[in-house]
Amino acid sequence: MDYSKIKLIVTDMDGTLLHSDYTLNKEFFTIYEKLKKLDIKFVVASGRQYESLLGVFESIKDEIYFIAENGGNVVYQGKHIFVHELDQHVINEVVQLIRPLPNTQMLLCGIKSAYIEEGFSEFEKQIAPYYPKRKIIPSFQESINDQIVKIAIYNTVGSEENILPCVEHLSENFQVVVSGKFWLDISVKNADKGFALKEVQEILKISKEETMAFGDFLNDIGMMNECNFSYAMKNAHPKLYEISKFKTDSNDEDGVLKILKEVIAQRER
């Protein structure tokens, strides 16, 4: 494998860079410093809230790009450089579609905070690792003083089977993506990891041919299509595994770090 052209590396978090217990191998930061010396830029792309990502990358927060909320919020050096906002009428429509579904809960993801409705204390505990900034509000159908970039919907049985059929018709005008076994996200049409990665590539003047990406689920498909070096984790969704050009070990086997070490070893020769 010829890694000589690589100038930009982007990775998903959960199921990809992070272990299944949500921890990051501390060796990552040693590897990152070597990438930096090789002038290879690093981007984190996740469905998580920006503040959640900061908690992991605090020591290098001003050096890397953050694609948060599946592309709804792109941040560099603390500045929101791209924000893709949903209209209130869309939120109202989705709320009406989701309310009747059993075993299903939702939250609104904004720039200032994430929002959940009153009466869902157990759900709040569950989302805490992904959304450290969150507020409880009386109703989703009331106006919120924030820019809502994503509607995240959770089903305790499975999102692909139990949420997607009810909202799939919205995909003509919006991004509707299964982002995890139990999660589905809705955002504006040009808010996904692929669109966000293109925006970062344009800022950095780095091409698709110079980009490497790692992912594990369907919300990573967009960014896989925007790079020549697309790697699916061994634990990836079958559809992502199929469209990715290359494969690596699972997240718990540090598959991302293994490939990054190969890049560094080849470039340092």
UniProtKB/TrEMBL annotation:
CDD domains tied to this protein: HAD_YbiV-Like (cd07518)
The organism of origin for this protein: Apibacter mensalis
Pfam families attached to this UniProt entry: Hydrolase_3 (PF08282)
GO molecular function list: magnesium ion binding; phosphatase activity
Recorded GO CC terms: cytosol
Protein name: Sugar-phosphatase
PANTHER family per the UniProt record, alphabetical: HAD SUPERFAMILY HYDROLASE-LIKE, TYPE 3, PHOSPHOSERINE PHOSPHATASE
Taxonomic classification: Bacteria, Pseudomonadati, Bacteroidota, Flavobacteriia, Flavobacteriales
Domain of life: Bacteria
